[in-house]
Write a structure and sequence with these properties.
Order of helices and strands: EHEHEEHEHEHEEHHEHEHHEEEEEEEEE
Radius of gyration: 23 Å
CATH superfamily of the largest domain: Glycosidases
Mean pLDDT: 97
Number of helices: 10
Number of domains: 2
CATH class of the largest domain: Alpha Beta
Oligomer: single chain
Shape: globular
Strand order of the largest sheet: 1-2-3-6-7-8-9-10
Length: about 425
Amino acid sequence: MNFKRLIIYEAFARAYPGEKGKKFDSLMKDLERLKGMGINTVWLMPIHPTGVVERKGTLGSPYAIRDYYEIDPLIGTKDGFKRFVKRAHELNMYVLMDMVLNHAAADNVLVKEHPEWFLRDENGNPTRKVPDWTDIVDFDYSNGELRKYMINMMKYWVEEFDIDGFRCDVAGLVPLDFWLQVRKELDPLKRLIWLSETHDPYMYQAFDITYDYDGYYKFRDFIEGKGSLREYVDFLRMQDHMYPRGYIKMRFLENHDQPRIAKFIEEDSLIQWIAFLFTFKGVPLVHNGQEYGLKEDVDIFNEYTLPFPMEENRISILHRKLAHYRYGTGVFTEGEMLFVKNDQPEKVISYLWRYENRYILCVLNPLLESTKVTLDFSGIWESACIHSKNVFNDEIVRVPVKNSRATVEVGKEPLILSFVLY
């Protein structure tokens, strides 16, 4: 499996429109739209029943799980989930379950059945490492029986429902040796996709993909005026020295833990960052509603319904176009990405993909200032003539390279040039 081919969509089943208890039907109907948008992997936020004790909000956090073997009746049934997975597979799409193994709801069925499986305070009561997470208690992975339970539970969802992988919540708070044990037990069942919600380099020992939280925080610093574009890009360069060769990061502009990107930046700048999301190395994540430029944050604690279906707009059309382009070229999934230096690093991001004799040059201008930028192709080309349509707007662009330098004009639209050199 080439994990670089994944384009992931985060779906909050409870927030989908439709009758309570039949959310899988709504999700199943949405699969056609997602497939048409270029999505090939659906990550479902937790679908289990939520806790009641110390519940946050009226419905509770989906990350405070009451029973790992059941499905939230507000969402649907096991039969409904099976139908959803089956339909996704018919469309050649993958389904990832959200697996929350660091902690459980304070009234999880295991608290009474196996109190010895939980972290204890000085008074012997179940407790947690993060004080603000008042609706949950943490597991104690020094207990071998707990480990067996969790492994068997994960096997159950694979064997009974044929899911394709797991997004593992706060995976870095769970011992690495447990994740290695999980892989040893589950790998013989099926080649699953393992996504870790952590950016720790050592987690690649057990996971295929990790979050780009370290890069995201630098990105947020830039869009909030706390850092420069140069600092962000320099950090992305540094990641190549921080992570193992061939590492895959899940890149994102927003998710259920982070605010809507459209709240922070104007639409033209958002266009630039969507182009970045789909053309930079890693695996892109699209969060429920991001594809329409929604500004209202998803409420994961209370009644909330996504405003679907929605009319196509400039943002959704671009998501679809670039997702299909990314998946279809082969260059992003098989090739190598090189950073290209430019003479305006405080304003412009530039990088080049190459695969055999095929190339894709990306020059992005998040600050939207119309300007001429000189690119430095030292070590790549001494001379060349790039003649290509801009993938973004189909305009013909000619870029002569002399003495390893080339000048391009940038403005409000991304420059994405796909070409062949012999």
